[in-house]
Amino acid sequence: EAQVTQNPRYLITVTGKKLTVTCSQNMNHEYMSWYRQDPGLGLRQIYYSMNVEVTDKGDVPEGYKVSRKEKRNFPLILESPSPNQTSLYFCASSLGNTGKTGYTFGSGTRLTVV
Amino acid sequence: AQKITQTQPGMFVQEKEAVTLDCTYDTSDPSYGLFWYKQPSSGEMIFLIYQGSYDQQNATEGRYSLNFQKARKSANLVISASQLGDSAMYFCAMREEGYSTLTFGKGTMLLVSP
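YS: structure for the whole thing
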């Protein structure tokens, strides 16, 4: 089944403790992206990647890191999480970057930083 | 300026009635795609329907149709014969040609009552 898999689904952590949210897709998609969703703000892009070893900042990159060492994987790293990073996170992938190609989303990761 | 505007924070509709969710967008790119996603309470993002900027006809997918008015830059989602399972948050999104970002509106919460 074609899908984007992200883990964990739920995570509660403490301020400052480094964490990684994993994301993997099995569709051979070139483009991958991380979004965060907050009430009243919709979804905002954190980082995106156009291919292996090619990443760039989205609208809200502060406090996050990403890497793209393999085509299928695009982990999101929070080096020192803070409570304002409590959010619902989505990983998504896309075959290309034309206007007609939408993103396939993972199931989401609910992160709480206390 | 917001690229995607959804002016209805919430909508109520009775089962079996039709409902229109509004979406306006802003772009100077002649080539772009418009998408609608559904997010039920479980949190996942479900793709519903796509409309390309050069498409001559309005998109339809089962009970979903997109009322595309290019000159007015609007892309309203029409759900016919609402069902209880349609209760969810609905997001309008746009992707411009050559860009990795799928830009979202803030969403409309739809509640379908028996």
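YS: worth flagging: The interface with chain B takes residues 31, 33, 35, 40-45, 48, 50, 56, 58-59, 88, 90, 92, 94, 97-105, 107-108, 110 of chain A (CB under 8 Å).
IM: good catch. Also The longest strand of chain A covers residues 42-51.
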